[in-house]
Every structure is written in structure tokens, then in C-alpha cells.
């Protein structure tokens, strides 16, 4: 049994097995700071009956009834009872007595076909979602709101051999995928349709031009070229080269602009590069692989972490600082911002600065603009979070009890291509696109535990992840670099990179609102960042 995990920096996480009857049963976890943050308990049959984090946070209790049903009580005190049926030696949920408002589950009943695949589910408004499959168990049609005037249909045609979609018809659009003999995506295209509800399936009539992307690969399966088109017009073209280890070396666009990766470490993490705007970008990491320094043309942002690896501070030029605090349950509990004047202003924090606005003594344009900007930002934040306590040198802004950790470690760039040019990662590697599709179209019959794990729509899961990623990118990298270097040169490109990420964040928020039943508590903060005005500092 796993007893400890020791990180390269020497910090250790310990796994506890304290149940003398079931010695294999995990009963707790002690984190890298030496604090117990998770506890699990079992009944006399070895079934888990409680799980909680430090201080009873997120406590969930399970009661196994004599009739084979299970009652689950959430941390908010609400409870619901699940019924099951045994089919082909698999215990499948069939009904739920009440919705889980805390986690977003609103499914009350499930039915299955003879193969065990989910054939329909009903929510607490009695709206039905119906599924059909091919002989390989792949979803071919999904109708949400079945039998109603608002029914929405998604139709999928699959590759004859691989578990890869070829055509997907959904409301107002049709998507196409083509593959080579190795199963690599060589083409992706989509066009809008007049079919607002998807009922026409793959026969839907186009209402606009086709947008397409094509890829070519080398013998090692690495993308060497990408071309994007709208109709017959080429809108973008990129070329990629690699070193002997398969690390991206150069990225060239259709105009001949080149971005170069100059150095990687032994783990394949990007250390040094010149992006397509000609900026020198450098990265430093700690022993765990978390980013500790991010430099753009000499402007450095530093990142600090606690023993658990959580981000605790961002420091940059011009006295830039933002800190984070966590509780024993690993929840983000407070933000630390520079202290400024105590005036309260609930207007947009990035709006025009009033001429009579009190600011600290002027120490140059950057410092003056920065101080005034932070004054607006701090005052605006405190207007919607009532518990803001002034301290010497900084403000401690309490955070509502968010269920998810909001400031995870900053890791190496997921795609070095994105560091050479914003958004180039998916152009280099179409697998990201396929993964998004798979999350939506994967075989629902394999998700037999979904009723016990909130039955979250995979589109909601993806949207939340995209929103968190875009928010994280703006607040921990793009914005600090821009605000502290606005007069150091031509910074229009830095501002544009923030605006591009804001567009991505807005799209993710739109999908969160569309697909998530329970909206994340982070949503107001995401919306603030997505809609904030980015000042012109150049």
C-alpha cells in the first residue's frame, strides 16, 4: 500500500491506514505541511461512509439501506437516496430522490438498453434526454428535451474502425474530421447551418462558408505544417520544426515571422525562447516543476509557493504584489493586495482615472499609473466582498468559500507553441480538439458512477476548466507583465494578448452558463476579469 510520496524538494505527503479491521482502507492523508487534511471512515463491511477535509469541510456521508438503496448527505445538509439495479454484473443507478443543488446534479431517473448503455435519463422537470448507439456502443444520437418543442439533437457518425468521430451535426452547425492511416487528424472543418435544433442531422443545409484546418506530419507523428481557411481563402499558415528529442524548435507563420525555442530542460520544459514578436522569454522552475520566474525582455515576475505547492505570491517590477492564503482544507481563503487609500469606489476599476483621485506620491509615470490603478482595483474588490481588513502595507481580502482551489501551482507551458505565438498550441496539436469532442461524445454507458458524482455534463466540465485556465493566465502572467512594463516600450502586443484571453474567458463563461446546472462560485470573479477595461499604458 502506498505510504508516502516524496517530492524532489524533499516535501512528503503521507497516506494513513488506521482501520485495524480493514488494513487496506485509506483513512486519511497528511499533507506536505504536516497537517491532516483528509479523513475517510468505513462501516463494518468495509464500505466508505464518510469523507471530509480538515475542519469537516466538504463532508459527505453515505448510508447503505437494507433495500439496496443508498442515502447521500452533502456538506450543506441536503440528502438524496439512490436506487440501483444489477445488470450484467454491474450495479447501475436507476433513480435519485432529490437533486443535488450543491454539486449540480438534477437527474432523477436512468434507463438502460440490453447492452447496459444509458438509453435515457430524466431531470426533475421530467425533461428527457434520449441516447442511441451503434453496434460498438458509440453514441450516434442524443436528443435533449426529447418529445418537447425545444428538443436539441446531436448526431454523430464514427470512423468504421477507430473510436474517432467523422461527422457531428448539432444545433446550427456540422463538424467534419478526417484522419490518416495512423489515426492522426489531417483535417477539421465546420460550417453553420439553418438547422437551429439539430433535427436535420447530417443533412442540414449550410448557412455560411466552411471554416477548415489541415495538418501534415513527419515520420514521427509531429505536425510540420498547419493551414487555416475560410471557404477557399487561406487565413493562416504555420510551419513547425523540432529537435532530436521532439521538442518544438521553430514556429514560422505565413508572413515569415519566426519564433524560436532556444533551450529546454531535461524534463522537456521550455527555459528560453524568442517569441514571434521578437521578445526574449525565459522561465525558471523549482524542484517540483512549478514556475518560479517568468521573464519577458528583462521584466521578471516571481512566483512563491507553500509546502503543499500552492501559489502564495506573485511579485513583479514596480512593487507589483498579489498574495494568496489557504485554510487547512486547501481552500483559497484570502487575497492579499497592496494597501492604498481607503476611499470606496464601486465603478469599473479599470475605467478612466478621476483627476482628483488621491494617489501616492508620484515616482514616475509607471509607478503613478500603477498606484492609481491598484487604488481603483482594491476599492472595487472590497465593494463586493464585505470582509476587507486594512493591514500595514497590504489589504487582506476574504474570499467566499469556493469549493475548488483557485490558485494551483503554475506549471510549465502546456504547449511551447503558445509561448511563441498566442493560440498556436492547438494549431500545432489537434489532439486538444479531439479531446474536447471526446469529453462530450464518450460512451455514457461507461459513466455508471455519474449519478453518485453529480452527473455533470462533460461540456460543463470542459467549460469550467477553460474558464479557470484563461482566468489563471490573465491574472498570474499576462496582466502582471503588462501593468509593470507599460512604458518600457511598444506594449500594444501585451495588451492584445490580454484582450485575446478575455475573449477566450468570455466564451468559456458563456458555455458554463449554458451547460452547468450549478454555476461555480468563481463565476463573478471570472466575469470581472473577462469584462475589465485594460488601460492603455503605451
From TrEMBL:
PANTHER family: PROTEIN RHSA-RELATED (PTHR32305:SF15), PTHR32305. Transmembrane segments: none annotated. This is Rhs-like protein. Keywords: Repeat. It comes from Cupriavidus basilensis OR16. Coiled coil: none annotated. Residues 212-335 form the Teneurin-like YD-shell domain. It comes from the Bacteria. The keyword Repeat applies. InterPro entries: T6SS_VgrG/RHS (IPR050708), TEN-like_YD-shell (IPR056823), YD (IPR006530).
